Amino acid sequence: MFRNYLITSFRSLLKNVNYSLINIGGLTLGITCVFLIVQYLRTELAYDRFHDGAENIYRITWENQNPQTRVPHPMAQAMANDFPEVESAVSLTPLWGPGLTRQTFSFRNIEKNIQYDETNVLAVDSNFFKVFSFELLKGDPSTVLKRPDGLLISESTAKRYFGTDEPIGKFLSVNDDRNTIEVIGVFRDVPAQSHFHFDFLVSYVHEKADEDPDSEFYTWKDFGHYNYIRLKPGTDAKALEAKILPWVRKYIDLTPEEFRYLEANHYGFRLQPITDIHLTSVLRWELEPNGNIDYVYMMSAAAILILVIACINFINLSTAQSSGRAKEIGIRKSLGAFRTQLITQFTGESMLVALLATFLSLVLIQFALPLFNAATHQTVQLSGYAVVLLVGLGLTAGLLAGLYPSLFLSGIKPAAVLKGKGLQGPRGTGLRKVFTVFQFSASMILICVSVIIYQQLNAVENRGLGFNREEVLVIPIKNRHAIAPHQDELHTELAKIAGVKEVSAASNIPGKSFNQQTIFADSDPQQRVDASEIAVSYDLLKVLDIPLASGRNFLRENAADENSFLINETAAQSLNLNQPVGKTIVLDRDGDALKGNVIGVVKDFHYQSFHQAVQPLIFTVRKANFNYVLVKLNTKDFPKTLAAITSTWKKFDSRFGFEFSFLSDTLNEQYAEEKKIAQVLITFSVVAILIACFGLLGIAALTFQNRTKEVSVRKVLGAGFGDLIFLLVKDFTTLVLFAVVIAAPLAWWIMNDWLQHFTYRVGMSPLVFVGAGVLLLVVAWATLGYLTLKLARVNPATTLKSE
C-alpha cells in the first residue's frame, strides 16, 4: 500500500512539473527563512537560562525617575542575612576607571613574554559561584574567592597566556612587572547567552584592601554595585520586593518625607528576573548592551507570516489543480476507496513535497548561514539537533499545507465527476482569493516595517547631534599613571603633527556611559538634579565644535577655572536658572561636595543615543581623570598622520598597546542592534514577496488556462489586445489593492509602537505605504506579464476548432 502511494505521488509530481517546482521552491524558501529565524529566536530567548534554577535568580535594581542597575554593595548580603526567602546573594562590579569607564589592565606572562591589554575584569563576592552556575574547572568554588592574593581566569585566557602549561600557581604581572598576582582558579568561558561576560575574576577582599579608608564605595551610601540574589524555590518575588523599602530603612537613613515620597511614586528597590534582563531591561549602566523584546516579536511574526505564505501557495495550487485529478478520485471512490485512504495519499504527497523542500533547504542553509551569522552577529551552526529541528519544521509545514487540500480532494463526489460536472465552484475560488490577499498583505507589512526601520536609522545617523563627530580620532588612555603627569606635554607633541588640527582629552565620550552625580544651585539646595559628569581638558569644545549658548569656555591661564563648571542648557533649565552664568552650584560627587561658579552654558548636544532625550550635563576640569584623548584630524593623508600619532604616543606609554577608533563609529555602534534587524527583515521581506509571487504565478497559470476559450471567443467577437490585457490582470490587481488597503493600517500600528522607543523619531509618511503598494503592484504585474501576453495572443482558430 505504501509503495503504491509513493509511486502515485511521484507520478503526480512529474505530471505537473511546473507546479511541483513552484510548490517545492516556495516551501524551500519558507522553511529556510523560518529555520534561520527560529535559530535567532532560540539564541535571544536563551539568555541566562544556563544557570541552574535560573528562574530563582534576581538582580536588585533601583527604581526612581531615573532608574538604574546599581545599588549599595552591602545590600545583597544583608538580604541573605535578614530574609529567610533568600538562599544566597552576591555583589559584583567591573573595575572602573574615572567617569565610570572600564579600567584597562596590562597582563603579562613574564616567562613567555606574552602580554595583552584586558578590560573584562570583575570584582566579586566569595558567594559568586553559589548564585551563578559558571563552571569552575580548577579550584574550589567555596574558598577560591576568599583569597585576597589570587586571580581567576577563563579557560581561553589560560590558553592565551600559558598555552598547554598548567596555569594554577603561575603568576601574571599587572601593569608593571614588579606587580604580580597568582592564578588560583580557571573557569569555563562564559556562555555567549549571558547578559554579562568576564575573563578575569578578583575577590572583593583584594579590592577592599586597596581602598581608601575614607571612601564610601563599599558602604550603604554608594549606589555603585550590581547585586544579585538567589531565592528559595517557590518564593513569591513580588511579595519579597514589597518588603524591601521598609526593611532598608534600618540601613539607609531615609527621612519620613523621603520615605513617603518614594512610596507615593512607587519608587524603591525592584527584583528583576535574570532571564528578563537581556530582552526587557533598559536601565542606566547595564553591564552590556541588551537586546530588545520588540525585535523578538517582529522576527516571530516574520517567521509565522513567511511559513503561512509558503503553506498557502501549496493549498492554493493543490485545490486549483483539483479538476485535473477529479476523474482519478472519482474512479478510486467508485472502485471502493475510502476517504481516509485518499486523505492518507494526498497528505503523503504533501509530506513528500515537504521532504524534498527540506532537503533543498538544508543545502540552501549551508550557503545562507555565514551571511546570516554576519548580519545578526550570532554563531548559528547546522548541528545534529538543528537538522532534526529542520526536518520537523519541514514535516510540520507539509502537514499544515497538505491538510486542507487532502480534505478538499477526498471529499469530491464521484457521481458528479463522472457525469462531467466541474469542481471549481465559487467557494473554492473565493478561498483562494482570500489566501492571495493574505499573502500580499503579509508582504506589504514586512516591506513597510523594513522601510520605516531603515528610515529611522538613517535619520538617526544623519540627524544633527549638536557637535561635529567627523574626523575625530579617539585614543583610550590605558595607562593613566604614565600619561596623566605628562598630559600637557603629550597634547603639545600631538598638536605638532601635520594633519592634526586640535587635541583634547575627556573622561567620557559621546556614545559611551557617563557617571551620574547630583547637582544643585547653592541658592536652592532642595532642587537637586541628576546630571551626567564629564571631566575635560581645555580644548574639547573646539575638537567637537560644541557651541556656547552663553558665557565662556575654560581658560588655561585662569587657575580659578579648575573650580568652575560648564553646564548644558538642559541642566540650567532643570536647576531653574534663568541666567546661570555667574551662579554658584554644588556638585555632590559621592558625598564629596565641590562648589563652583558656572562660567558658561553649552548648547544642548546629543551625547547619548536618540533613544533618550538630552539629559543634564556638567563639565569639570580634572587632568587626572581623563580616559580618552580626542584628536581632530585632517584625514587627507591619514596613514602618515596615524603613524606619527602612534609613534608619539608610545613615547609616553610603552607598556600598553596603542588603540584608536573614530568617534563616528562609536556613535553608530549604539544602533547596531537595529541595523542588523533591519538587514534581516529586509532580506526576509524580499523572500516573502518572492514566495507570494511563486503562488501568484501558479494560480494565474491555472486560472488563465481555464479562461483560454473565453479569451478566444472575445477575440472572435472583436475584443482588442488592450481589452484582453485589462480583463486578465484586473482581478489580480484588485486582490493586490485590497491587500494593500488591509495591510497599511496594521503596518502603521506596528511601527508607531516601535518608534515610541526613540525620543527623536521620523514621521511615517504616507509615501511609504503608497510606495510599498505600488511596488507590490509592479511585482504582481511583472509576475503575470508573460502569461498575460501569451494568452492575449492566442490564436482563436486553434482553441475553438474542436467546438
TrEMBL record:
Transmembrane helix is among the record's keywords: yes
The keyword Transmembrane belongs to this UniProt entry's keyword annotation: yes
InterPro entries the record matches: ABC3_permease_C (IPR003838), MacB_PCD (IPR025857), Macrolide_Exporter_MacB (IPR050250)
UniProt keyword terms in alphabetical order: Cell membrane, Membrane, Transmembrane, Transmembrane helix
Primary residence: membrane
Segments forming domain ABC3 transporter permease C-terminal: 301-414, 682-796
Pfam assignment, any one: FtsX
Domain spans labelled MacB-like periplasmic core: 20-244, 493-636
TM spans (from-to): 21-41, 295-317, 351-372, 384-409, 430-454, 680-704, 724-751, 763-787
Domain of life of the organism encoding this protein: Bacteria
Subcellular location: Cell membrane
Membrane topology: Multi-pass membrane protein
Record-given protein name: ABC transporter permease
Organism for this UniProt entry: Chryseolinea lacunae
Upper classification of the organism: Bacteria, Pseudomonadati, Bacteroidota, Cytophagia, Cytophagales
